[in-house]
């Protein structure tokens, strides 16, 4: 899909060209074309490019497991797996299937990542058959939330994703949209929203016909033990924000305190949401969201309700109270 070039703001363009970016690890360039013959149960993917990677652009420009038990709930499909390993295998196939379908339809695949254990659960995507069969050149990568820290800081969701996923797959570095960590929390949130608007206007990100908001192809969400998603925490006023696409928080109950986050209107405009939850410590919020109980104030995870498809990927411990 052709698109008009994105115009960078001066501070972001300056930061993108800064020599300080050189401190991040680089991935060797390797170009290849491939075609893989596979069994009927395995996806066939088209040609792809094994290419460069690196710190990406600032957003201003940066075999399936059958062990799962699937049920249909009012809030989407629920898949429960005997182990986190089985969950990871199924999540990789789900993501690869979706990427293959959508990238063939419209030449791009917009993916939103979160932090926490989600990146670990994506690890099967960096292994065969997916590493050499997914059309990684179609991927456009974003973050549902980010900590306002340098990109090489241990608290950075970018660093987490880079170390565990992005550095291992040939996604084009210009298709990775990270925040401008040289700005304040408020400035970084405004800048990221401006970036999204540019990409919507240029056709890289689709638009929801229902809301007029950006419609990401796949949002990969985790959940905290308190039921928070993104950086939207229980009882915090930001869970009710309905004007901004991207907002900021300076008093996060979980450190570090300064973060940016997508708001629920944008999250819920997604075409597909995969909510990935592992561990017995998260069984309570899972039950609150999917069980029959009622609570006076919904947890943030209960407010995730996309206009498209939602699939819960749970290990047996996270589902133990259902």
TrEMBL record:
Organism: Theobroma cacao (Cacao)
Domain Glucosamine/galactosamine-6-phosphate isomerase stretches: 83-312
GO molecular function list: 6-phosphogluconolactonase activity; transferase activity
Pathway connected to this protein: Carbohydrate degradation; pentose phosphate pathway; D-ribulose 5-phosphate from D-glucose 6-phosphate (oxidative stage): step 2/3
Enzyme Commission number: 3.1.1.31
Protein's UniProt name: Probable 6-phosphogluconolactonase
Catalysed reaction, written as an equation: 6-phospho-D-glucono-1,5-lactone + H2O = 6-phospho-D-gluconate + H(+)
Class of enzymatic activity (EC top level): hydrolase
GO biological process entries: carbohydrate metabolic process; pentose-phosphate shunt, oxidative branch
């Amino acid at each position: 899909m052709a698109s008009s070039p994105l115009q960078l703001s001066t501070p972001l363009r300056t930061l993108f060209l800064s020599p300080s970016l050189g401190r991040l690890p680089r991935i060797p360039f390797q170009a290849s074309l491939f075609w893989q013959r596979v069994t009927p149960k395995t996806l066939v993917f088209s040609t792809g490019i094994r290419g460069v990677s690196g710190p990406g652009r600032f957003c201003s420009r940066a075999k399936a497991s059958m062990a799962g038990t699937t049920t249909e709930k009012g809030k989407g499909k629920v898949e429960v797996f005997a182990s986190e390993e089985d969950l990871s295998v199924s999540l990789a196939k789900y993501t690869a299937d979706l990427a293959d379908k959508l990238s063939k339809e419209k030449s791009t695949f917009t993916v939103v990542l979160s932090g926490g254990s989600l990146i670990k659960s994506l690890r099967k995507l960096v292994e065969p058959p997916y590493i050499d069969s997914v059309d990684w050149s179609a991927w456009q990568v974003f973050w549902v939330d980010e900590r306002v820290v340098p990109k090489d800081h241990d608290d950075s969701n970018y660093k987490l994703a880079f170390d565990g996923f992005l550095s291992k797959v040939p996604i084009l570095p210009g298709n990775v949209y990270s925040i401008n960590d040289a700005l304040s929390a408020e400035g970084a949130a405004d800048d990221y929203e401006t970036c999204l608007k540019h990409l919507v206007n240029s056709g890289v990100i689709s638009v929801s016909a229902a809301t007029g908001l950006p419609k990401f192809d796949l949002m990969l969400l985790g959940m905290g033990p308190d039921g928070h998603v993104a950086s939207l925490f229980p009882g915090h006023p930001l869970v009710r924000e309905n004007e901004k696409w991207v907002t900021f928080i300076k008093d996060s109950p979980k450190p570090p305190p300064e973060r940016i986050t997508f708001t629920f209107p944008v999250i819920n405009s997604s075409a597909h949401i995969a909510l990935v939850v592992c561990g017995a410590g998260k069984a309570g919020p899972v039950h609150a969201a999917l069980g029959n109980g009622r609570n006076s104030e919904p947890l943030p995870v209960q407010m995730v309700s996309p206009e498209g498809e939602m699939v819960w990927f749970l290990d047996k411990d996270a589902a133990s109270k259902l």
